[in-house]
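During the reporting period the student researcher (J.K.) took over the structure-prediction task from the postdoctoral fellow and processed the backlog of single-chain submissions. One of the processed entries is reproduced below for the supervisory committee.
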Amino acid sequence: MNFLAHIHLSGSNLWIQTGNFMADTVRGKDYLQHPIEIRKGILLHRAIDTFTDAHPVFRSSTKRLHAKYHHYSGVIVDIFYDHFLAKNFQDYSAVSLADFTQHFYAFLQDNTAVLTEKTQQMLPYMVQQDWLFNYQYTEGIARILGQMDRRIQRGTQMQYSVHELQEFYPEFEQEFRQFYQEVQQFSTQKLQELCVLYPNV
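J.K. obtained the following structure tokens:
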């Protein structure tokens, strides 16, 4: 799961969405330095990642890419699944993708002080290029994967995986739909558990 799915799986609380969104930039027990609602989002993100990596449907998707992209297959499928969520967002939300993403961007821009330094640095590019909205287009997916490839600087060639996306499009989309239904159920239950563990004060 990449940015859009993690945000969407956080429910309607924007603080929890923010914690889930920036969780990859929070190491170890550093999450304890954040407010309760953001802490819930970070822990939810970690639980979703663990659930995703072990899920047989997600593994089926990565297996299709593994021979060419090796351990980056999981990163690529995360992006692919965000593509299918963005493309079919009306099936999963009563709010349009445009409204959902713009509302979230505005909230982040109004609350930059709570963001990690890496997230603060990334945010202007994310908003300017409208990453979340553009996940619905294969061109947007290729651009994001290319940017990731350049940051890694190991010649992963991830941006070319859009060829596999196009070749096996129905298979990837079917796997996404099956997986996303289950990860939604998991996330709802996990969030309920976190709200009991960390009640608001």
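The committee noted the following: The first helix runs from residue 3 to 8.
J.K. will present the remaining backlog at the next meeting.
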